[in-house]
Amino acid sequence: MVWASGALFAAAFVVLVPVAIWVYSLVFAFTALWFTHYSLGALEIMRAEANPVVVGASVPVPAIALANEPSNPPPTP
């Protein structure tokens, strides 16, 4: 049984090696795509937490810029 399976794999070597290389390349490509997708998503979340933006403004305004402005400026005489 062991001898027969060894002979079978030796005969199928010409087909199995290209198939194995193709599968490993496909796994590598999808792994790189998944890593990039989730890393960019995490980076977007980290940037949003570090610099929140006021929603609804015509131009995105960082919330830190609005926090430094006085909420009620003194009246002008």
Description of the molecule:
By secondary structure, this protein is mainly alpha-helical. The protein has helices at residues 2-11, 13-50, 63-67, and strands at 53-54, 61-62. It has a two-stranded antiparallel sheet with strand order 1-2. It starts with a helix and ends in a 10-residue tail after the last helix. The model has no long low-confidence stretch (mean pLDDT 78).
Shape: rod-shaped
**Overall pLDDT metric:** 78
Separation, N- and C-terminal Cα atoms: 102 Å
User: How many H/I helices?
Assistant: 3
The radius of gyration computed from the alpha-carbon positions, rounded to a whole number of angstroms, is 30 Å
Structural class designation: mainly alpha
| Spatial order of strands in the largest sheet | 1-2
Secondary-structure element order, as H and E?
HHEEH
Report the major sheet: 2 strands, antiparallel
Total number of strands: 2
Helix content: 55-70%
Notable characteristics:
mainly alpha; 3 helices; 77 residues; rod-shaped; two-stranded antiparallel ribbon; 69% helix; single chain
Task: Describe, in short, the structure shown.
The protein is mostly helical and 77 residues long. It has helices at 2-11, 13-50, 63-67, and strands at residues 53-54, 61-62.
